[in-house]
Amino acid sequence: MDEKILTQNMHIPDIQNIRVYMQNGGYESLKKALAQMNPGSVTDEVLKSGLRGRGGAGFPTGRKWKFIPQNTNKPVYLICNADESEPGTFKDRLIIEKNPHMLLEGIIISCFAIGSHTSYIYIRGEFYHQARILEKTISEAYQKGFLGKNILGSEFDLDVVVHRGAGAYICGEETALLESLEGRRGFPRLKPPFPAVAGFMQCPTIVNNVETLANVPYIIKYGGSKYASIGTEKSTGTRLFSMSGHVNKPGVYELPHGIPLRKLIYDYCGGIKGGRPLKAVIPGGSSVPVLSAESIDIKMDFESVAEAGSMLGSAAV
């Protein structure tokens, strides 16, 4: 089943404009979350969905949110990781360019779930154009009352800020990102403490990837069970595969977790250039182990790729 979650509206002209986004169901999930749900029930739906981090590690998103200490007297922060420095990975950039309000809606709902009133989008320095898109998107959301004080007449307040990095690859790692965000050298911290306990400015912090957060509006709109029915039992939902290298049709393909690697390369990407034989595949970005051509029949989900001796990572193939 080729269910589209993230790319289903990307073909609509001007979907980047908040008016067009709203005409196509945009911000309905946020309205539902604020009017009919509470932070706990939003988190429960995300837990039920089985959504896992799309930045590389694949940690369950709802479980990560649950690590925020209850009744903390410190401010809680949500950081959207838009650093995307993994070579061969260009799916977060696609989301920002093609449907930025979907990402922002996911950020707002996620902040409501974890009790955050300030969110930062940390974007890599080279993404100047994409940073401007996000700033325009945020400005439109403030004008429509989706950001700021008493969002949609509720008691929920939220401010979102775009922070541009300086291009260091290591800043994709969440604690190095936090160091950079605080104005220091982007160098990873020792863990524990984990960011959920002591993150940005030593306050409880959740760091989620762009693709992860962009899935949240769909989950709230259709329910966690619907989302969990897509993909495999342990790797639910779809995945944005960034396909590059010696294939005939490179690009970003949204397909369910568990799709065979052979089908991905030969059916969707049109096979190897010049009809030459496949020699090797990097299944999840340049930092993961290379697979030989013998692994062509593995399924592209977290567990299957790990069993083959590599990692799904950022799904850059």
From TrEMBL:
Reaction(s) this enzyme catalyzes, per UniProt: a quinone + NADH + 5 H(+)(in) = a quinol + NAD(+) + 4 H(+)(out)
UniProt GO MF annotations: 4 iron, 4 sulfur cluster binding; FMN binding; metal ion binding; NADH dehydrogenase (ubiquinone) activity; quinone binding
Keywords recorded for this protein, A-Z: 4Fe-4S, Flavoprotein, FMN, Iron, Iron-sulfur, Metal-binding, NAD, Quinone, Translocase
Domain SLBB: 240-303
SUPFAM superfamilies, per database record: Nqo1 FMN-binding domain-like, Nqo1 middle domain-like
Top-rank lineage group of the source organism: Bacteria
Cofactor(s) in the UniProt record: FMN; [4Fe-4S] cluster
Pfam families: Complex1_51K, SLBB_2
Annotated InterPro entries: NADH-UbQ_OxRdtase_51kDa_CS, Nuo51_FMN-bd, Nuo51_FMN-bd_sf, SLBB_dom
Transmembrane regions listed in the UniProt entry: none
NADH-ubiquinone oxidoreductase 51kDa subunit FMN-binding domain segment(s): 47-217
Family statement: Belongs to the complex I 51 kDa subunit family.
NCBIfam families: PRK13596.1 (NF010120)
Protein name per its UniProtKB record: NADH-quinone oxidoreductase subunit F
